[in-house]
Amino acid sequence: MTLQQLEYIVALDTHRHFVTAADSCFVTQPTLTLQIKKLENEMGTLIFDRSKHPIEPTKTGRQIIDRARQILREVNGLKDYVNTEKDAMSGVFRIGVIPTVAPYLMPRFLKHFTDNNPKISLKVREIESEQIIHDIKHDLLDIGILATPLDESNIREIPLYNEPFLLYVAEQHPLFARRSVTPEQLPEKGLWLLNQGHCLRDQVLSLCNQRRSSKMENISYESGSIETLRNLVKNHMGYTLVPELSVIDQMDDLRIKRFEKPEPTREISLAVHKGFNKEAVLESLRESIVKNIPDSFVKAKKFNRIRWR
To answer: Tell me, what's a Pfam family for it (predicted)?
Structure first.
């Protein structure tokens, strides 16, 4: 058994295609196939079920691949540890950010971070929470920025801030006249929601204590964009809930209403695999983010954290 063979089975599990997996490992497809077959013969068990299309791990193979990922992660971690002293703040880091955070948070701190860490390159993707969790577990991402807690045993969370939820309500709506609201005052009808898969949707439904789809009179509309929901409210009817950063520059808009204290919030955190050991990178990333968000997000001590899982 070699580390190279472990890399090959991990690549095949990730891509579920021999040619694509071989390309990702910079070897020919016959070489990858031969080495995986040798490993299966050595272990006396099939790791992949080749009758499935696309190919899938066997039940035993799944356990072997999970162990292989852990071994490779620890080997890479050891290499990082050896290099920590001489080159702590350099390298390429893959970051996944949920779509309801990315457009409002990333422009605030990225320049500050890259200016202070010129030897670090960031590869940022906007993806939903469950995909971030999956990719961190499978070593496809280094760092996630998403709503927590996650309650995942092998993922470490580094809290950044608690962001209040705000009500965005149409001028014709009965709640428009109120200066502040409570979750109990939110009506059952008229709520515009994000698509399924967004953790913000689950948090809003949890806050409203209900399970439903967006529906207004004879219109059913679920969006992947907070801006679309706001425009629906502005030009139609009903209401929606938005995170404060999404409207931070438009707080004079009378459609925006705060909740009574303790305000409902979402906790936004960095998330990494417990084997991730670039502490200096995490600290610098956290420092850049906290420095470039409203002080109230960090300093607020009274809040009602809304879970999404």
So the answer is: LysR_substrate
DSSP secondary structure string, 117-149? -TTEEEEEEE--HHHHHHHHHTTS-SEEEEEE-
pTM listed for this prediction: 0.74
Structure tokens at 200: 């913000």
Q: Is the pLDDT of residue 86 over 60?
A: no
Q: What are the residue ranges of helices labelled H in the chain?
A: 3-15, 18-24, 29-43, 59-83, 102-116, 129-137, 199-208, 226-235, 279-291, 295-299
Confirm or reject CATH 3.40.190.10 for domain 163-264, answering yes or no: yes
Whether the bond into 264 is cis, omega within 30 of 0: no
Q: Where in the chain is the domain with CATH 3.40.190.10?
A: 91-161+266-298, 163-264
Answer yes or no: are the C-beta atoms of 181 and 264 closer than 8 Å: no
Question: One-letter amino acid identity for 279?
Answer: E
Fold of 3-83: Arc Repressor Mutant, subunit A (1.10.10)
Classify residue 50 by its DSSP letter: T
Partners of 169 in the beta sheet? Answer: 239
- Please say if the pLDDT value at position 297 is more than 70: yes
- 22/142 Cα distance (integer angstroms): 22
Task: Choose the weakest-confidence range: 136-145, 199-208, 259-268.
Answer: 199-208
What CATH number is given for 91-161+266-298 in this structure?
Answer: 3.40.190.10
Chain length of the chain: 309
Q: Which residue has the higher pLDDT, 271 or 79?
A: 271
- Between 76 and 35, the more confident residue is 35
Using CA atoms, how far residue 247 sits from 129, 144, 190, 296, in Å, is: 22, 23, 20, 15
